[in-house]
Design a protein that fits this description.
The complex is a heterodimer of chains A (about 525) and B (about 425). Chain A has three domains: about 5-90, Roll (Ubiquitin-like (UB roll)); about 100-105 and about 120-215, 2-Layer Sandwich (Alpha-Beta Plaits), CATH 3.30.70; about 280-435 and about 465-480, 3-Layer(aba) Sandwich (Rossmann fold), CATH 3.40.50.740. The longest helix of chain A is centred in the first third of the chain and has 16 residues, at about 75-90. In chain A, helix 2 packs across helix 3 (about 110-115). In chain A, strand 21 and strand 22 (about 450-455) form a beta hairpin. Chain A has helices spanning about 20-25, 75-90, 110-115, 155-160, 195, 260-265, 290-300, 320-330, 360-365, 375-380, 400-410, 465-475, 485-495, 505-510; strands spanning about 5, 10, 50, 60, 70-75, 135, 140-145, 165-170, 175-180, 205, 220-225, 230-240, 240-245, 280, 285-290, 310-315, 335-340, 385-390, 415-420, 430-435, 440-445, 450-455, 515. Chain A has about 525 residues and is an alpha+beta fold. Chain B has about 425 residues and is an alpha/beta fold. Chain B has three domains: about 10-225, NADH-ubiquinone oxidoreductase 51kDa subunit (Rossmann fold, 3-Layer(aba) Sandwich); about 235-320, Roll (Ubiquitin-like (UB roll)); about 325-430, NADH-ubiquinone oxidoreductase 51kDa subunit, iron-sulphur binding domain (de novo design (two linked rop proteins), Up-down Bundle). Helices cover about 45% and strands about 15% of the residues of chain B. Chain B has 19 helices and twelve strands. Chain B has helices at about 20-25, 30-35, 40-50, 60-65, 90-95, 100-115, 125-140, 175-180, 210-215, 215-220, 225, 260-265, 300-305, 325-340, 345-365, 370-380, 390-405, 405-415, 420-430, and strands spanning about 75-80, 115-120, 145-150, 155-165, 205-210, 235-245, 250-255, 260, 275-280, 290, 300, 315-320. In chain B, strands 3-4-2-1-5 form a five-stranded mixed β-sheet. In chain B, strand 6 and strand 7 (about 250-255) form a beta hairpin. The longest helix of chain B has 19 residues, at about 345-365. Chain B is globular, with a radius of gyration of 22 Å. Classes of the chains: A alpha+beta (about 525), B alpha/beta (about 425). The interface between A and B is medium-sized, with 34 and 29 residues. The structure holds flavin mononucleotide, iron/sulfur cluster (3 copies) and FE2/S2 (inorganic) cluster (FES). Flavin mononucleotide binds near residues 171, 207, 208, 387 and 392 of chain B.
Chain lengths: ~525, ~425
């Protein structure tokens, strides 16, 4: 653990820490472009030059290990002058497209120019080297070669992380440019990451381009719902609309990355098809019904000596699963099954992508549910069930269209709690809209048995309710103690299930934590 | 020095052929050393000889060999035969006319550093040299001087001739290594240095052709003999490449520390046409220039450094009084802009900027502040990059502007080169 001094402050760092990281520990940013903690060091941008006592030349902080007794200056005159000159060099051939550049507002060239340069241009505009603009290089990414500062973050990512090497640098000197190798496109399943790590507007995300200015966006930490890996993300949103996901660093889960499929999965949770208010069946038609009345009707259907069964999907949060199980199994002595479905031939690989396209299959099993939804359908088809409650469950994933019609005949009542319109509504008597995972507090458990927290990015869509709130209300009406927050529900989970013991939602914020014990504990 | 060591082929016809080389005493040293001496002993002898690298930096060769980590049995020797520094054409003489001197020296060096695989990275354009080398390697293998179990001593050395990728930066030792590995010749950030992390990640020694070719003579005649040639701190025979305005341009083998004035006026016959000398670049285009008044200097690493320039690759470029210094610097600037690998920001952008300023000065269109700007850009490029190509572009710029400032100012005031008509200027820009 070497101790060193940076700008007059002492700091002790782990062995092998570089000077960018060491300064960061003191809250000091050493400006940098090419350095990225998830990639091998390139040392080419020369932005991170710092002064180290007893060394005649300035040294790059990214490639210098912190050593015992080092005395480092990150703000000396020499350092500031070097930084200013690197910035001036970077701008020699830069197009300064800021007004039409998607990166504006989160551009390191803009930021550092404002912080460290601000000198007048000494380069005549007409003498700039021109290169390619708006080049379509793959399904996710557009390339602007003029804006590129040749930091090689993208090529290092493609060489070292995906191993696909689609991009390279061509030509020499100030004619250097990033381009595709002949005959390939940038179409690997992780291509979106290059736009995240590109410090400027050279690589932009096609899905996001020109949809909003980044300074209008709010950011909420959460977890990708795309598969059982549970990559940590930030949800970037504005007035109830998600604009993009950005991977958030978690060394134990996804490092700095996420897959393209997950990145685009936000689209499934918004826009067309979301259920906006409770409705009940009125013959062939649907009739809107107020929430109080809807909850009352739900409670009525459940009351009495009925044979009740429920199915809840692995898209639901732990809190919803727990309350659902409590309600149907404990309170109403019904049967419950979890439902975890992925399409035939779902993508998967060794890096991040899991073939289980549900974010919380592990939550179902940890909370003691079986994954046998079909058994419940079979009982219902056999006429052994009066009331079926479907929570986020698409029946076509468990039975045929004919069977769905048959279920309609066999059941006394079917209640559907869901985000969006789907085939299950066919048999529903009452439909209650619930909020998406981005609209609630809660948690998922990933394939590593790691419990991770969802951030509530926005208000529930339309008149939908957070599922936990609906379930606790119904359970309360039937005489169970109710909960006033998702955290309170989580506390109950921790009481009842040994694997969750000691955890709290607040405590899990950030990186989450592994569940205790090797298997689920059902207390 | 009358006896030629490195250019012995000038005295012995057909030395390139193995038979001739052997009958001239060739490979006798390798045979003796491999049979009789220990590797550590060879490193000591090379250290004692005071041999310093001829590739440009003058780093003590024996000390470099000593940096190899002791524990790693896999290591490589790389011969830097990329020779691309403008004004430099010495290694080529050896490669094309005396290849066995290099191969024998490589056997000795490889034996000393316990390496069994050596690469000769030869400049891509040296097609003839590559052919000659390959033939020499074949002959040497057939003759038992290279390959497996050399002279029955159990020592193996496989030599691969690798043709370069056609860029100046492939001569920078870590760019060379990357290029040898099949990648773009991007110089590596150091540390780690090649002696620790070189070719394919294994410890590697990179030496210039001329440097290595001193090894056989040192082991043949002893470190003490070597030290008698030239100054004590940079001894040995040296190849001087002289080009430009001299009567007899060419490669001269003379003792290290030969006086620059003597080199130009005695050995090369002075300036043709009775013209006056204007300036000399002593060590290849990358080093600061000397004015005619500054040439009373001995051509060895320390003396030239003391005089404010560098011995570099010993490419001595002589310019007479008619030379336009703005034009000369513009040509140099174009070279570095074209050859910057483009990796580091100050070099990639700075070399282009320098050239652009030079075009403005020579062709017209320059701004009043551009002469100062040249100095400032050069200052900002220096010392802040992965390799020293940025410095190599900045140093001549600074010295040209400093020493010939009035000529630059004159161009500025005249709105272009005063010596030439606009027509000629345009023609030359496209030349
Ligand atoms: C831009 C650049 C180009 C170089 N080109 C050559 C070259 O063509 N030949 C050479 O021997 N050394 C060249 N060098 C020097 C090498 O990096 C290295 O110092 C040398 O090969 C070491 O050998 P030595 O110790 O025998 O001198 C170059 C250095 C730089 C920075
Ligand atoms: S990359 Fe940055 S500096 Fe360049 S045009 Fe875009 S926002 Fe502006
Ligand atoms: S495209 Fe972006 S990430 Fe890639 S080298 Fe250019 S600036 Fe860096
Ligand atoms: S200094 Fe120039 S040539 Fe050397 S690595 Fe940097 S960009 Fe390449
Ligand atoms: S961040 Fe260190 S050189 Fe680029």
């Amino acid at each position: 653990m070497p101790k060193l001094e940076i700008d007059g402050q002492e700091v002790e760092v782990a062995n092998g820490t570089n000077l960018v990281q060491a300064a960061e520990q003191l809250g000091t940013e050493v400006p940098h472009y090419c350095y990225h903690p998830g990639l091998p060091v390139a040392g080419n941008c020369r932005m991170c030059l710092v002064e180290i006592e007893k060394m005649p030349k300035l040294q790059i902080a990214c490639n210098t290990r912190a050593n015992e007794g080092m005395v480092v200056h990150t703000k000396s005159d020499r350092v500031l002058r070097a930084r200013e000159s690197v910035l001036e060099f970077l701008l020699v051939n830069h197009p300064i497209d800021c007004p039409i550049c998607d990166q504006a507002g989160e551009c390191k060239l803009q930021d550092y120019y404002m912080d460290h340069d601000r000198q007048e241009s000494r380069i005549p505009l007409e003498s700039k080297v021109s290169k390619g603009k708006a080049i379509d290089i793959g399904p996710m990414i557009m390339l602007d070669q003029e804006r590129c500062i040749l930091c090689t973050r993208c090529t290092r990512f493609l060489d070292e992380v995906t191993g696909t090497s689609e991009l390279g640098i061509f030509e020499r000197g100030n004619h250097c440019q990033i381009d595709l190798f002949p005959g390939v496109m940038l179409d690997n399943p992780y291509s979106g990451n290059v736009a995240d790590i590109c410090p400027v507007g050279a690589l932009t995300n096609k899905d996001f381009r020109f949809r909003t200015r980044v300074w209008y966006l709010e950011s909420t930490p959460s977890v990708c719902p795309g598969c059982a890996t549970g990559c940590n993300i930030d949800i970037h949103h504005r007035s109830g609309e998600v604009f993009r996901y950005r991977p958030r660093h978690n060394p134990d889960v996804n490092s700095y990355w996420m897959c393209d499929e997950g990145r685009l999965s936000y689209k499934r949770y918004q826009g067309e098809g979301r259920l906006l208010q409770p409705v009940q069946r009125a013959g062939e038609d649907w009739q809107p019904i107020a929430w109080d009345a809807a909850v009352g009707r739900f409670v009525d259907v459940l009351k009495g000596d009925k044979r009740i069964a429920g199915v809840i999907s692995a898209q639901s949060s732990n809190e919803e699963i727990f309350l659902f199980d409590q309600l149907v199994r404990e309170q109403l002595s019904g049967q419950v099954a979890g439902h975890s479905w992925s399409p035939e031939g779902a993508s998967s690989d060794e890096l991040l992508i899991d073939g289980d396209k549900n974010p919380n299959t592990a939550g179902l099993t940890e909370l003691g549910l079986t994954l046998d939804a079909r058994k419940i359908i079979d009982s219902a088809l056999a006429g052994e069930i009066d009331t079926l409650v479907l929570y986020g469950t698409d029946l076509t994933q468990v039975c045929t269209v004919e069977e769905i019609a048959e279920l309609g005949d066999k059941l006394d009542a079917a209640i559907v709690l869901d985000l969006r319109y789907g085939p299950s509504l066919e048999i529903a008597d009452l439909v209650l809209p619930i909020a998406s995972y981005a609209e609630i507090e809660g948690s998922f458990i990933n394939r590593q048995r790691r419990c991770q927290v969802l951030g509530r990015s926005m208000e529930p869509t339309g008149h939908s309710w957070p599922g936990w709130q609906l379930l606790t209300k119904v359970a309360g009406s039937l005489g169970a103690p109710s909960h006033d927050s998702a955290s309170a529900v989580f506390e109950r989970i921790a009481d009842k299930h040994a694997a969750f013991r000691g955890l709290t939602l607040a405590g899990l914020a950030g990186l989450g934590a592994p569940l205790g014990g090797a298997t689920s504990g059902d207390g | 020095m009358s006896e030629k060591i490195l250019l012995r082929h000038e005295d012995v016809a057909n030395l390139r052929e193995l038979d001739v080389y052997v009958s001239d005493g060739g490979y006798a040293t390798a045979l003796r050393v491999l049979k009789e001496r220990e590797p550590e002993d060879i490193i000591e002898e090379v250290k004692a000889s005071g041999l310093r690298g001829r590739g440009g930096a003058g780093f003590p060769t024996g000390m470099k060999w000593g940096f190899l980590p002791k524990d790693n049995p896999l290591r490589y020797l790389c011969v830097n035969a990329d020779e691309s520094e403008p004004g430099t054409f010495k290694d080529r003489q050896i490669l094309e006319h005396n290849p066995h001197l290099l191969l024998e020296s490589m056997v000795l060096a490889a034996y000393a550093i316990k390496c069994h695989k050596a690469y000769i990275y030869i400049r891509g354009e040296f097609a003839q040299g590559a052919k000659i080398l390959e033939e020499a390697v074949r002959e040497a293998v057939a003759g038992g001087h290279l390959g497996e179990d050399i002279y029955g001593t159990g020592f193996d050395l496989d030599v691969v001739v690798h043709r370069g990728a056609g860029a100046y930066i492939c001569g920078e030792e870590t760019g060379l290594i990357e290029s040898l590995e099949g990648k773009r010749a991007y110089p590596r950030v150091k540390p780690p240095f090649p002696a620790v992390y070189g070719v394919f990640g294994a410890p590697t020694i990179v030496n210039n052709v001329e440097t290595l070719c001193c090894v056989r003579p040192i082991l043949e005649r002893g470190a003490q003999w070597f030290k008698t040639i030239g100054p004590e701190k940079s001894p040995g025979p040296k190849l001087y490449c002289v080009s430009g305005h001299v009567e007899r341009p060419g490669v001269y083998e003379l003792p290290m520390g030969t006086n620059l004035r003597e080199l130009i006026y005695d050995h090369c016959g002075g300036i043709p046409g009775g013209k006056k000398l204007k300036a000399v670049i002593p060590g290849g285009s990358s080093v600061p220039i000397f004015t005619a008044d500054e040439i009373d200097v001995n051509m060895d690493f320390d003396s030239i450094a003391a005089a404010g320039s560098l011995l570099g690759s010993c490419g001595t470029i002589v310019m007479n009084e008619d030379t336009c210094m703005v034009r000369a610097l513009r040509i140099i600037a174009r070279f570095y802009r074209h050859e910057s690998c483009g990796q580091c920001t100050p070099c990639r952008e700075g070399t282009g900027w320098l050239e652009r300023l030079m075009i403005g000065l020579e062709d017209g269109g320059a701004n009043d502040r551009d002469v100062d700007l040249l100095m400032q850009v050069a200052d900002n490029m220096m010392g802040n990059t992965v390799c020293v190509l940025a410095d190599a572009a900045a140093m001549p710029t600074k010295s040209f502007v400093t020493k010939f400032r009035s000529e630059f100012e004159e161009h500025l005031q005249h709105g272009g080169c005063p010596q030439r008509s606009a027509e000629a200027m345009r023609a030359s820009a496209h030349a």
